[in-house]
Structure formats: structure tokens, C-alpha cells
Specification:
- Helix content is about 25%, strand content about 20%.
- It has a 5-stranded antiparallel sheet, sandwiched between helices.
- Helix 2 packs across helix 3 (about 65-80).
- By secondary structure, it is an alpha+beta fold.
């Protein structure tokens, strides 16, 4: 059921503490942790603790939690000191867009020049 932890979801296991991660922030509704395959000097994932497969389903079902993810992404950028020079928040939605873990999450990227268009 949407919103409920999924036994086979890596990010649900990180949110519950079952799988270790380098956590940089945590709130009542989100967890932010360092990506294990960073694409920039700062690469932190911000996830909702509730399980939704992607950003679209999260925002449709839980707009306040989606807003929490965005707010925490900004707090991560400030904490990592990349907010002054610029940073990117990315939501990959679907395998064709590069999503590999089907639990909604935002990538916070910064600390180097980020070209446009991406990818």
C-alpha cells in the first residue's frame, strides 16, 4: 500500500535504520543521506520516510511531505555550503529518466559547475 514501508525497498530500510547510511539531516518526515556513487562534490539524497514510488505519486498523495522534501533539500544545500554558488535538486521519475530505486527521492547536487542541459 502506498505510504507504507516496503520490505524490498532499500530506501525504506535506510529510513528505518535497518540499512546504514551517512545521514546528514533527519526530520519527522524525511531523511537526507550521502549518495554512495556521488556525481558531484556534494551529492545528498533526500527521501520521504513514507514510501511512494516517485515524486509524482508522492506529491499527489502527500503534498505536505513533498514540500518537506524540497525544504530539506534547501537545508541540505545550506548545510553543505553550496547554496551561495548554486546547486541542483533533481527528481528522476521512471527508469527512462535514470531512476533506479523506486522510492521518491531528491538528489541535491553542488560543489562544481553544473552544465545545462543536463545529461
Amino acid at each position: 500500500m502506498a505510504g507504507e514501508p516496503q520490505a524490498d525497498c532499500l530506501f525504506c530500510k535506510i529510513a528505518s535504520g535497518e540499512v546504514p547510511a551517512t545521514v546528514v539531516r533527519e526530520s519527522d518526515t524525511t531523511v537526507a543521506f550521502r549518495d554512495i556513487n556521488p556525481q558531484a562534490p556534494t551529492h545528498v539524497l533526500v527521501i520521504p520516510k513514507a514510501h511512494y514510488p516517485d515524486a509524482a505519486s508522492l506529491s499527489a498523495a502527500e503534498p505536505q511531505i513533498a514540500a518537506d522534501v524540497l525544504r530539506e533539500a534547501g537545508e541540505v544545500a545550506a548545510g553543505e555550503q553550496v547554496d551561495g554558488n548554486g546547486y541542483r535538486i533533481v527528481f528522476n521519475t521512471g527508469a527512462g529518466a535514470g531512476q533506479t530505486v523506486f522510492h521518491a527521492h531528491a538528489h541535491v547536487l553542488g560543489g562544481r559547475g553544473l552544465q545545462w542541459p543536463p545529461g
